[in-house]
Amino acid sequence: MKLLREPLLHFLMLGAAIFAAFAFITRHKTDKPGEIVVTQGTLDNIATGFAHTWQRPPTEGELQGLVCDYIREEAAYREALSMGLDRDDTIVRRRLRQKLEFISDDLASHAEPSDADLDMFLRTHPGLFKTEPLFSFRQIYLNPQLHRTDLQRDESRVLAELRSPGSLGNPSSLGDPFLLAQSFENVSLAEVKQTFGEQFAAGLSALSPGQWHGPVNSGYGAHLVFVSQRSEGHLPALAGVRDQVRREWLNAKRTETTDKFYQALLRHYTVKIEVSEEKKVAQVH
Amino acid sequence: MTRSRKIGDLHILTSFLAACLLCFIVPSAGGQELPALDKKTAEEVLPKKPYSPYAGRTYPTRVFWGDTHLHTSQSFDSVMFGNRLGPEEAYRFARGEEVTSSTGQRVQLSRPLDFLVVADHAESLGVMSEVLAGNPELVSDPLVKRWHELMNQGPEGGLEVYKQVVVDYVGKGKPLPGILTSPTTVRSVWLKNTSLAEKYNDPGHFTTLLGYEWSSNTGGNNLHRVVVFRDSADKVNQVVPFSSLDSDNPENLWKVLDAYEAKTGGSVLAIPHNGNLSNGRMFEIVDFAGNPLTRQYAETRANREPVVEVTQIKGDGETHPYLSPTDEFANFERWDRGNLDLSADKKPEMLQYEYARSALKTGLKLEKELGVNPYKFGMIGSTDAHTSLATADSDNFFGKLPAYEPSPDRWKHASEFSSGKAYYGWEFVASGYAGVWATANTREAIWDALKRKEVYATTGPRMIVRFFGGWDFEAKDAQNRDLSQIGYDRGVPMGGDLRQAPAGKSATFLIAALKDPIGANLDRIQVVKGWLDAHNKLQEKVYDVAWSGNRKPAANGKLPPVGNTVDMKTATWTNSIGAPELITVWKEPDFDPSLFAFYYVRVLEIPTPRWTLYDAVKFGVTMDPKVPMVEQQRAYTSPIWYTPTK
Q: Which residue among A214, B114, B170, B530 is least packed, with the fewest CB closer than 10 Å?
């Protein structure tokens, strides 16, 4: 995020802020009731809008027409508001809600967590960031269809052979042909799950390293398994996962800000949901 | 509004500046060519093969699963249909998290995907969510205001807007209100989408590739392509998605993609889909304007479109019973009543230019004529879901649109078009995913695998399929414990080429399939062969090459069905039939070294419940007898081609 520290960017943001503030002041200056004031700012704005569309400034006559229209719009707008015409209009309602949520979203998106915030988040959400346990293991596959009636006996026979002191330690000729590799080096538990399924992953996790075990079952059939090494997952230091933590922090913040915003809003209201008796009956059935 | 627009502009400006700055510091992508080695020097210079069989292994050892074609609320039609989930939710869902769907239902994948391409329509990208919200500038146009009101009435209103936009405007070449195609909006949404993709790209764990969909649909004929970049946002942000409103001719899309590569040094490919809804236009023997194909067209297309999405929610496009009358598995999830908006009926003579198998055949003939095969493509599946939810599992299917998310009535829900014809809920297909043999889970490795076609399609299940072609595979190779090593050492993988047949030798294939670890057993492996015979006629044949149990082919050569364990009352099945794994070496019995041919593998699972049966059981509803309830899920690999020596 080097870009965020660019002086050029700061300059641009500052410029935009001033511009936005200026537009805000000139547009939303409140007039007295019964008085419509067209300020120089409004005039400039009207002219700029015209120039933006037509790529040239308006002529005197055009500007007059635009100002006339602005005055009519302002009068009509106030009249419509006082008549309450905004109330039952879905377009107006949605637009206003959107504008309000935009402000709340904006607050969340401009929040920048400190390292302390991130560190706290990392510690309180270890499940999101903990590294996976890693396994190095070998597996011998027994295809249940090739050992229809004697699978258990064959499992025990192969396991005994693997465990026997005279075993050559080269099991590649034992078991049945299998599309997956016999030997896996430092694969994560998630990868084991993807490749062999949950059942096998759970079985594998329970094995003590340094000895042939089995059978461990999977959706494919039975496996005899030798875990040579396993390392437990750990919570990494912030420096190693800063981007991920920041991403998750911002996401949590976004949800939290919206929720808080509505909670605060709804504190001013008592909400009643009135369902007619007939509807209640219908809902029950 | 002023405020949001100013900030949008600022964002564009800063991103533009950032892109400009980066242009100067990114090194040129073109690598230096090494001088060719002669054999003697090579032996001296290159290292000997190490003792350890695993050292220096460079081939892919793992298949990665993904969806290259997912729409979010940034797609004009998606938001009309009520999708309220954006790319962020799409990425979170695909990487395995639980999300709440647009209809308020909690949903999670059975397992995470490894990668995802959010491919929103380039046409009016993001603009329709503004229409929905009632952006005053947009609803100042009376037609747009009407659409805004319709969209706010609910899904039916949304569908009405979709029909008007797609059928009455885009379909008839009538320009949309200019305000809806504003480049400023499209650009700001594009930059937002690419930055979200960057945010969720996590090499090694979960890859997000940048992309969009170009949705040419003139006359209702679907010529859509998903565009997928190899590159990161620094390059991709230098362009905006190319819209079919600018040109509906795919040749112009390719030109734009050429220009992208020339400008940025990046790489990009395009993936056609739904030839079945193109009414004979997707794989024609003439170009878009109706002229005969040229060598240059063939080269461009083959290079730009290395894979085709052959199976997805709107039908499976492998082949059709009319084209493959002796293939008893050809009648699978067909959508063959008309084009995309059903404005024109299907005629049988259109089918040969729509389906993958016949297009691969057409390609052989064109190669003989032009010297280059324009239809030399690999095959993948993807969802094309417009819900931001990449679901392809039958027991977890969230449909095409929010209106087709789980509900007791979704099976009979109809999407009617102005031509008075409709697609019905039960016709949608819980399909598919792309299986990719990549060396790592990164943008570059996944894109490169797509480009070299080392990929395959499945209709949802994640079965592992290996397919190698060579000249001297032997039966005992199928017993080897390191099958892929043998495959790569002595042959080419799926997507590869066989040439220069040694005298007297036939093509041999090493083929293996392993069931989805949590899915159904396998029924059989088949090899589909297509070839151009000595009389210049295109032919095809399906061979059963490995199957479960002790079944014997009948006198007509057909293998008996595997059986069916599906319990219609509970929507369950058992793996008491079929095989968890099938491995074989198949020697081509009819090989002729003088003829152009291709071979691909089709793997069939045992019968399992279709999503409609899960619905019937979960909701306790009875569906019309015509609704299919049981099916055999499948995988299609990219072909291996044989090209005779001239």
A: A214
What is the percentage of chain A residues whose pLDDT exceeds 70? 83
Kindly report the CA angle at B362 between B359 and B364, in degrees rounded to 5? 115
Which chain A positions have a beta carbon within 8 Å of B580's beta carbon? Answer: 143-145, 219-221
Assess whether pLDDT exceeds 90 at residue B453.
yes
Structural domain ending residue among the three candidates B450, B478, B494 = B450
**Residues B475 and B403 placed together within one structural domain of the fold:** no
Other beta carbons within 10 angstroms of residue B95's beta carbon come to: 19
Same-domain check for residues B440 and B518: no
Chain A residues closer than 8 Å to B513 by CB = 179
Within 8 A of B479 by CB-CB distance, chain A residues are: 177
For residue B470 the two structure tokens come to 């060579």
Note whether residue B42 is domain-resident.
no
| pLDDT recorded at residue B10 | 38
Mutation target vs B (from A22, A131, A180; most B CBs, 10 A cutoff): A180
Q: Contact at 8 Å (CB) between B140 and B92?
A: no
Chain B environment of A13 (Cβ under 8 Å): 10
pLDDT band for position B375 (cuts 50, 70, 90):
very high
Asked if A16 lies within 8 A of B136 by C-beta distance, the reply is: no
Would an 8 Å CB–CB cutoff place A3 in contact with chain B?
yes
- Residues A225, A230, A235, A239: what is their CA dihedral angle, to the nearest 10 degrees? -120
> E strand or H helix at B44, and its extent?
helix B39-45
Ordered by where they begin, the domains of chain A are 2-87 (no CATH), 88-130+237-285 (no CATH), 132-231 (3.10.50.40)
Cβ neighbours around B294 below 10 Å, total: 13
Per-residue pLDDT of B563-575, as tens digits, reads: 999 999 999 999 9
Q: Which residue range is the domain that position B307 belongs to?
A: 68-450
**Of all helices (H) and strands (E), which one includes residue B540?**
strand B538-547
3-state secondary structure of B477: helix
- Is B637 domain-assigned? yes
B3–chain A nearest CA distance, Å: 7
Confidence grade of residue B100 (pLDDT, cut at 50, 70, 90): very high
| Strand, helix or coil for residue A64 | helix
- Identify which of A95, A180, A182 has the shortest CB distance to residue B133: A95
Given B427, B450, B473, the domain boundary residue is B450
Instruction: Please indicate, yes or no, if residue B56 is contained in any of the structural domains.
Output: no
Instruction: Give me the mean pLDDT over the B237-257 stretch.
Output: 95
Q: What's residue B9's pLDDT?
A: 40
Average pLDDT over residues B154-167: 81
**Position B270 pLDDT exceeds 80:** yes
B-chain CB neighbours of A27 within 8 Å are 2
A172 has pLDDT over 70: no
Q: How many domains does chain B have?
A: 2
Mean pLDDT, chain B, integer: 90
How would DSSP label each residue in B414-475?
Answer: EEE-TTS-EEEGGG-----EEEEEESSSSHHHHHHHHHTT-EEEESS---EEEEEEES---G
Same domain, B429 and B494: no
Residue A258 in contact with partner chain B when CB distance is under 8 A: no
Task: Give the pair of three-digit tokens for residue B101.
Answer: 């769907």
B592 and B515 co-located in one domain: yes
Residue A146 touches chain B, beta carbons under 8 Å: no
> Taking a contact as any Cβ pair under 8 Å apart, which residues of chain A between 210 and 239 contact chain B?
218-221
- Write down the pTM of the prediction: 0.81
Nearest to B480 among A145, A177, A185 (CB): A177
Measured from the Cβ of residue B247, the count of other Cβ atoms closer than 10 Å reads: 16
Q: What is the mean pLDDT of chain A?
A: 82
ipTM: 0.73
Residues B254 and B370 in one domain: yes
For residue range A123-148, list pLDDT tens digits in order: 999 989 998 899 999 999 998 888 87
Q: Is B33 part of any domain?
A: no
Q: What is the pLDDT of residue B166?
A: 80
Residues B270 and B384 in one domain: yes
